[in-house]
Amino acid sequence: MSTEETTTVTVCPATELGPGERVIIEHEGEPIAVFNAGGELFAIEDRCSHDDGPLAEGEWYPADCTVECPRHGSIFDLRTGKPKTLPAFQPVRTFKVGITDENITLEV
Amino acid sequence: MATAEALAEKKKVEGINSDYEEKFGFHDPETGYAYKAPKGLNREIVEEISNYKNEPEWMREFRLKAYETFESRPTPQWGGDLDQIDFNDIHYFVRASETNSRDWSEVPEDIKNTFDRLGIPEAERKFLSGVGAQYESEVVYHQVNEKLEAQGVIFTDMDTALREHEDLLREYWATIIPPNDNKLAALNSAVWSGGSFVYVPAGVKVEMPLQAYFRINTENMGQFERTLIIAEEGSDVHYIEGCTAPVYSSDSLHSAVVEIVAKKDARVRYTTVQNWSQNVFNLVTKRAIAHEGATMEWVDCNLGSKLTMKYPSIYLLGERAHGEILSIAFAGAGQHQDAGGKIIHAAPKTTSSIFSKSISKDGGRSTYRGLLEVADGATETRSKVVCDALLLDEDSRSDTYPTIRIDENDADMGHEATVSKVGDDMLFYLQSRGLNEEDASKMIVNGFIEPVTKELPMEYAVELNRLIELQMEGSIG
User: Fold this and answer.
1) Model confidence pLDDT, tens digit, residues B102-156
2) DSSP letters along B396-450, please?
3) Which domains does chain A have, with CATH numbers?
4) Predicted ipTM of the assembly
5) Which of B31, B229, B252, B412 has the fewest CB atoms within 10 Å around its CB?
6) What is the DSSP letter of A91?
C-alpha cells in the first residue's frame, strides 16, 4: 500500500472540458494533462518518458484513449500511461481524475 | 549511354575501384517498365502510390499522415550533410515489372540477367532457405523453401503481406519505428514500397539464411523498402540483405525502415552487406525489440554509398535478453560512413555488446555514433562497447561519438576505443616476411576486420574480404 499522501487539485469547471478536448495545467511546477475522451476523463504527466519533453500537445485519439508524442511518435495509452510504440518504453505517471462539485479534480 | 558520357561519369565518381562499375555498377535499359512516377514528392504522388497498390484505407491514411510529418520536420543537421539531397529530384516510385514471380524464368529478361550477374539465383540454390529480389520499388522474385512454408514460416514481400496477412502485419506495423521517429522514417512511411515480411512461428528454427537482395537501376531513384520480422517464442532466423546500384553521376536515395520483434527466447540475426554505388545516400532506420531471454544480433557491413547514416538499435525489454551489434564501415574517397549502434537495457539481467570497426582511406570519413543506455531498474546488466578505427593515410578522418547513459547503480559497463594508423613499422615487418606493400596493407586490414567476418556465413565472409580487397587496391603509393 502506498504511503504517499495525495492532494486534490482543481483543474477547471467540468463544463469547460468537453468530449475530445484536453487541458494542460501546472501543479507545483509539474505539468499535467487532462483529457476528455468521449465523456471519460484521464490525466497523465505531461512529460514523455523517452526524452522528458512535453507529451500532451501531440495529436491525440479519443476513440483509442491514446496520445502521440509530438517529437518522436511514441503513442501512450491514457488509461495506463504505458507506451504502445517505441522509442519510449517506460510508462508515464497517471493520476486519478474525477468531478467534485462540478469541477474536474485530480489526486496528485 | 554513349561511351564518352560513360567515361565522363566514370571520372566523376571518385575513389571507387574500377571493378565496381563492371561488376555492380552497370544498368539496364528501362524498356518495358510498367510505371515510373514523375520526379518530386507531393500529396498526389503519395496517394497515387497507395491507389496503384490498391491498399486498404488505413494504409493510405498512414502514408498521408507520414507525408505531413516528413514535410513539417526539418532536415537533420547532425551526422552527414543531408542538405545535399534534393528531395524534388527523385523518382519516388518505379515499377519495373507487373509480376512478382516465384519462378526465375518468369522474371523479365533484363532483370533476370541482372540478378544472374549478381549471383543471386546461384546463391539461392546453394545455401539459402529463401530469396527475395527487389528491383527498383518492388519485389520481382520471391521464393521460400517448401518445408519452411509447411511449418508456417512466412517470407514474402511487404506488399503481398499487406494483401495476404493484413491483420498480422497491422498488429506490429510501425510499433517499433513510428513515422514520427525521424524525418527519414516519415519519408519511408509515406512512400514505402517492397521490402520483406518474415514471420517465424514458435519453436521453428530456420537453419539456412533467408536473403533479400535490393537493386536500384534507374537514375535519381528513391528506394524505400520496409521490412518487418516477427520471431515467435523459441524461434530462430537469420536474415541477410545485400544491395548494389549502377554508377551514375547524379544521386539516388535509399531510405529503409526495418522493424524486428524477437519474442521470448527467440534468436534473430540480421546481416547487411551494403555495397551501394557512390552516388547513393543510404539513410536507414533499423530497430529491434528483444523480449525475455531473446537474442538479437545486427551484423552491419557498410562498404558502399556516398553517405550512410545508420545506427541499428536493440531494446532489451525482457529479463536476460541479449543484444549484439557488429558494425563494420569502410570509407574510401568521397565517402562518409556515419554508422554505429544503439542498445537500451530496459530490463534486469540483460547483456549486450557493440563492436565497431571502421577503416578510412583516400580522404574517406568514418564516424562511430552509438548509444548505450541502462534504464533505472535494469539491474545486474552487463555491456561492452568497443570501437576501433583504422586510418590508412593522413587525409582520412575518423570520429567517435559514444553516448553512454546509465540510470541504474547495479550495472557493469565497459568501453574501449582505439584509433590506429597503418604504421611504417607494421608494413616493414610484413614486407620483411616477403609480402609487397599492398599485400601487407591488405593483410593488416583483413586482420582488423576479422572479428566481424568470422560471424558471417562463409560465402559472405569471402565476399566481404574480396570487396574490401578491391576497395584497398591502389591504396598504397
Assistant:
1) 888 888 888 888 888 888 888 888 888 899 999 999 999 989 999 999 999 999 9
2) -EEEEEEEEEE--SSEEEEEEEEEEE--HHHHHHHHHTT--HHHHHHHHHHHHHH
3) 8-107 (2.102.10.10)
4) 0.89
5) B31
6) P
